[in-house]
Amino acid sequence: MFNLPIEIWLKIIYFSKLKDVIKLAQVNKFFFYLTKQNNHFFLNYQEGFNTLNYFKYISFIKHCENLKYFEDFSLGFKYYISDNNQLFKNKLKTINIRITDKYELNFIKANRDLKNIKLKCSHNLNNYYIFSLFDKLDKLTNIFIDNSLISDGILSIFNKYKLKHLAFENCINLLNFDILIHNNLKSFKIINHQYNNSNYLQQFLKKQKNLEELTLSLINCNYMLADTISNIGKNLKILDLSYPQGLLDDFCVYRISNNCHNLVELNLNGSDITDNAIYFLTRNCPKITKLSIAGTFIRDISLVFIAMYSPQLKYLYAEFNRITRIGIFNLLLRCQKLKKINILNEEFSMEYLNKVYKKISKKNERNLL
Q1: Domain range for residue 17?
Q2: 29 — phi, psi (to 5°)?
Q3: Looking at the structure, do residues 234 and 360 belong to the same domain, yes or no?
Q4: Shortest CA distance to 189 belongs to which of 174, 199, 224, 179?
Q5: Residue 319 shares a structural domain with residue 295
Q6: Using an 8 Å Cβ cutoff, are 87 and 60 in contact?
Q7: Is 291 exposed, middle or buried (0-12, 13-18, 19+ CB in 10 A)?
């Protein structure tokens, strides 16, 4: 066991539970110093975090020299972090945390080299504290804000960063996205954002010529937004338009697919598309490997289109549709790289589908085609 390379041990530690790593650090000097190189830390209630053992966890955080990742959604964070100033010495690169008080903000500010941040903010937290937080961090490249009342004024401070990834979820106060001057984003996400006027969002998206990932989930969609996505879609690889609040129909998909030829993953769950949209999509976007079309109006003919024009497909999620096994078998005949199909609210492994498929005679296979 001790003959394993250090790189292998570090991998094992990376995927182990925190309580097991803490025990490992107590075995001998070799493991003690090995765990000091820990570059990952995950703390939440699922690992048994409570008032009885958090001192042990905090001690372990201090023990790690190269800690890069911190996550805590367990609440009660403010009650212990103010008494552990040594935690502020960690040069974290990534923090994923729920903010309920100024103690968490002080902890974040102490990590001036922070590059990736995901905040789940309390609505009771004053906007001034959020503003002061982003005013202190200079090296951020990825920002994810969840469940916050942050205003357009705070949005404007993001302009000082060289952002590559920006995401907002359940942020009801954000309206004027055109304040942002960024034009070199790689990823942009908006989830569950209600607004009456989408012009600001469209103006912001028009600036993005290098987007590789775009998520507009649970928002108001229309033809103008579809045109905007089409215009910036040359480099898009991942597109999520799931559960639109407006109209996302065959014509929208036709417009989008005309220019988004490099799409690899596409999510159209809960949209108003029919078989016509799948025809346009598969003809114009042959590189798709992951397709989600659950809760739409597609039938078996859509799977025939996919089988004919999307041979690279690996994952298909099409539950709650009018699809039968006829469409599935047509898909299996041509899409040899399929790994998983989720249909009729059941997940079939490819091993199971292959067993069923082998029972079909060659004569029936010709009839299915």
Answers
A1: 1-90
A2: -65, -35
A3: yes
A4: 174
A5: yes
A6: no
A7: buried
CB contact at 8 A, 178 and 207: no
Look at residue 273 and give its three-state secondary structure: coil
| DSSP single-letter state for residue 164 | S
Smallest CA-to-CA distance from 264 within 242, 289, 235, 294 is with 289
Residue 235's Cα: distance from chain center in Å? 18
pTM summary value: 0.77
Strand-pair partners of 240: 215, 267
Burial of 7 (0-12, 13-18, 19+ CB in 10 A): exposed
3-state secondary structure 337-369: CCCEEEECCEEEEHHHHHHHHHCCCHHHHHHHC
pLDDT digits (tens, 9 = 90+) for 146-186: 876 666 677 788 888 889 999 988 876 676 777 888 888 99
Residue 330, domain CATH: 3.80.10.10
